[in-house]
Amino acid sequence: MHFSIHRPTFIKALNIVMRAISSRTTIPILTNVKITLNQDELILTGSNVDISIETRILQSDTSAQLDIQKTGGITLPASFFTNIIKHLPDENLTLSTEGLQALITSGSASFNINGQDVQNYPHLPEMEDIQSLKVSAAQLNELISQTKISASSQESRPILTGMHLELAGNSVKAVATDSHRLSQRIVTLTGTETTVNADVIIPAKSFNELQPLLEGQDRVDIKLATNQAVFDLDHTSFYSRLLEGNYPETDRLIPSESATEMKIDATHLLGAIDRASLLSHESRNNVVQLLLSQGKAELSGNSQEIGQVKETLPVKSVVGEDLDISFNPDYVRDALRVLNGKTVELKFTTNLRPFIIIPEGETDNKQLQLITPVRTF
């Protein structure tokens, strides 16, 4: 293998595939980046078993300045190799291989690195029984942002570490829950030519790595198979395994009626939550208290070691029964942040039942955050 390339273009491609490479893996070669060169393009691949990313640099892309001298392939230690490329002195670099050794030159600098046989690198997952659709990258990014916050980080219940996606026609319902909170978003896909009926669970960690790749993209081609999802973006393919199992039936958790409702600007409530949590974070249980009475609302936080904070909230309205409820402020803060500063409605049944946070005027649960209160007695 022998090629030269514009270094910033190569670094950009390396940064993309590095998202799939972990230093903690039971398969040693997966700490390497796979580099293959054919007559038309340079292909970089990274994988950690759960996700794989393949990105291509085309010879026809004049900005890449890709000059192909000899085709071939090698895998090289990803972190070490990337650091070398980033510190090279010139705008261009040349990479050539002799057996399992790579020679990298740029300006007056040269490095020799030992690699491994590209044939030993695991193949990308094969896709069977594929369903595919094209969606707006911006819409997919919003769907992920408003849902993934409630996915569990605990591997004790693996199914809850994923986001549950139900696709029916041109509608998609996304749900995530860690059993303490729940996020739900239902959208009608825009500009979608194909209708898909599918029910999949994709790890939230996969979406964490996919999201930065969506920036600046227009459309995303999604392929869904039995155990894999692939997101194609320009010259990059992002593979994610699917979680196996049945996702909990979450519709029954969402209350259909409320006894008390509060309407408030999300930014004002977020600021008050931030202030109250300064003290709650110093206490053992990390809880704040909301008191709703006679059309007014008061938020308080308490730490036996430090003291107490109380704040009257600038509500737009409080209607229904009086209520005294406690909850984890971090859950509510996460929920408010994804609602992008809108006026929100909080709907409560009792102080021991989950409550929901929705944008003002939401009537059909297309966008909601559900929080389970904390028992303090």
Automatic annotation (TrEMBL):
Keywords from the UniProt entry: Cytoplasm, DNA replication, DNA-binding, DNA-directed DNA polymerase, Nucleotidyltransferase, Transferase
Compartment(s) where it occurs, according to its Swiss-Prot or TrEMBL record: Cytoplasm
Ranges for domain DNA polymerase III beta sliding clamp C-terminal: 252-370
DNA polymerase III beta sliding clamp N-terminal domain location: 1-125
Recorded coiled-coil stretches: none
SUPFAM superfamilies: DNA clamp
Keyword Transferase (UniProt): yes
Pfam families recorded: DNA_pol3_beta, DNA_pol3_beta_2, DNA_pol3_beta_3
Limits of the DNA polymerase III beta sliding clamp central domain: 135-249
Top-level taxon of the source organism: Bacteria
Role description: Confers DNA tethering and processivity to DNA polymerases and other proteins. Acts as a clamp, forming a ring around DNA (a reaction catalyzed by the clamp-loading complex) which diffuses in an ATP-independent manner freely and bidirectionally along dsDNA. Initially characterized for its ability to contact the catalytic subunit of DNA polymerase III (Pol III), a complex, multichain enzyme responsible for most of the replicative synthesis in bacteria; Pol III exhibits 3'-5' exonuclease proofreading activity.
Subunit-structure text: Forms a ring-shaped head-to-tail homodimer around DNA.
Similarity comment: family membership: Belongs to the beta sliding clamp family.
Protein name: Beta sliding clamp
UniProt organism field: Convivina praedatoris
